[in-house]
Write a structure and sequence with these properties.
Layout lengths: L1 H5 L6 E5 L2 E5 L1 H7 L1 H8 L9 E3 L5 H13 L9 H11 L2 H13 L6 H11 L1 H11 L1
Parallel strand pairs: 1-3
Antiparallel strand pairs: 1-2
Helix pairs in contact: 2-3, 4-5, 5-6, 6-8, 7-8
Length: 136
């Protein structure tokens, strides 16, 4: 499926983010993201469109999210974990959100725990509980 996406074959949706277009398959996106599934199946305006615009996410993060949805692989780094976590939370991609939380937990130090707590408290209660378990 990823090869089809890269070759722009049988793609039925264009995801527009920050003036960049990403070609994809609704079935893959809906299978990975309850948010996108709802958008494509609940009679919303987007269900009839061939393109959707996603706001509040950077184009490089969207590329990583799509790569993850198609391959199950992602490179989480200190410099991208916050943006990936926010994107995964926005689109409700639970498996990527969990990977980001695990990364943050593994990289938790006394010098950064409050910043990570603040970030994760904005995301979900479950992620905050993960941080508290590590701290205590």
């Amino acid at each position: 499926m990823n090869e089809l996406r890269h070759n722009m074959e049988l793609c039925d949706i264009t995801v527009c983010v920050e003036q960049q277009e990403f070609y994809a398959h609704k079935i893959i996106l809906a299978g990975c993201s309850p948010y996108l599934k709802a958008m494509f199946t609940n009679g919303m305006l987007e269900s009839e469109k061939s393109s959707v615009t996603i706001r509040d996410i950077e184009s490089d993060v969207m590329k990583s999210l799509l790569d993850f949805m198609y391959t199950g692989k992602v490179e989480v780094r200190v410099d991208n974990v916050q943006a990936l976590l926010q994107g995964a939370s926005l689109l409700n991609v639970a498996s990527l959100r969990n990977i980001c939380c695990q990364f943050l937990t593994l990289h938790l130090e006394s010098s950064n725990c409050l910043g990570k707590y603040t970030l994760q408290s904005k995301m979900t209660v479950n992620m905050v509980n993960t941080v508290f378990v590590v701290i205590y």
